[in-house]
UniProtKB/TrEMBL annotation:
InterPro entries: ArgE/DapE_CS, Bact_exopeptidase_dim_dom, Peptidase_M20, Peptidase_M20_dimer, Peptidase_M20B. Its EC number is 3.4.11.4. This is Peptidase T. It comes from the Bacteria. Signal peptide: none annotated. It holds the Pfam family Peptidase_M20. PROSITE patterns: ARGE_DAPE_CPG2_2 (PS00759). One of its GO terms (molecular function) is tripeptide aminopeptidase activity. Its cofactor is Zn(2+). It catalyses: Release of the N-terminal residue from a tripeptide.
Amino acid sequence: MEEKIIKEKLVEYFLKYLGIPSQSDDKNKEVPSSIGQLELGKVLGLDLKELGLVDISINDFGVVQARLPRRGEGQKSLGWVAHLDTVDVGLSDKIHPQIIKSYDGSDIRLNEDVFFSTKENPEVLAYIGDDIIFTDGTSVLGADNKAAIANIMTTLWYLKENPDIDHAEIHIAFVPDEEIGLRGSRKIDFDKFKVDYAYTIDCCELGELIYETFNAASGTLKIKGVPAHPMSAKGNLVNPIMIAHDFISMLDRAKMPENTENREGYVWVTDIHSDVLNLSLDFNIRNHDREKFEASKAYLYKITDLLKERYKKADIEIQIEDVYDNIADSMNDENKVAVERLKEIFDQLEIEPKIIPMRGGTDGSYLSKVGIFTPNYFTGAHNFHSNKEFLPIDRFYKSFLVTLELMKDKKL
């Protein structure tokens, strides 16, 4: 089938799913956190049925699951997981993409107020002559993760259109609320997701291959002080804001996000709410190294104990909860074939692998922890979580080719 037709199908699915706003809402603790994710899931359920998948279901949490029965003599059952939500970074939840045909290397005015500068985004110059999908400057593009959904759907469409191609048994799970703590992947019905291993397609430029992510935890420090009128405050007033100040001052500024890279971990104070009596401080802990990750948690407990000793009149409590684990910690001799297969396909397609430690996590970080090893590969997009996000269609097509070869269930 012609490359041009496949690219058109990729874009058709992508634009269709972009047209359904599905931004997740961190303030809503329900799953899914937004109605748009349910609406998108319903559309995907219908599309999966049209493509011939079976056992299609949408559970109470908005997780869409389906299965494509094996064709041929292969043995593997493989899974693909993609997330329904787009990220909330304070931009519009409505996405209005635009396609720049045969990009000429110049700066782009996305709208009257937003300018895409090649000086600030020099990576775009690698795509001169290509067709590129941009935002209109008012939102993220949503390639994270609707490019993955479109990729998977296009591959399923291609297999339907080519009945002579053998393939593995394919299990699909489209999950909500990945962007706000991998909540949706926890709601997969794993009795219906029996796979040897799985993949996510949730990272950036051509060639990125991820099987190492952060270990992640989130926490809250809660402080209840003692209020007092200034005329009687001496010896009585306990200001929760000043206690939080002491907590923050005992953190290592060199180990915060703005000062770290690659495999360097961090502690990040993300939010503070306070009045004269009660304070709540939220923070994240991240590290690729499990031992260092645990050491960071132990240090925060230690300084909290110190503050309790220093401010005996205050009520001070800290809560830390693990969010996801490093995918690499789940790789073993049996399941590493999932990564070896990716490397083999990259070589076959003449794609140079960019194996990097992801400074973040994917749904695979949770899936790998519960026994389904799930590495990750590229969508082809750049500038995720930004109104300068863009997706070169040629790289989008290369990601599709990787998915197609994986689904063919070739043995090493």
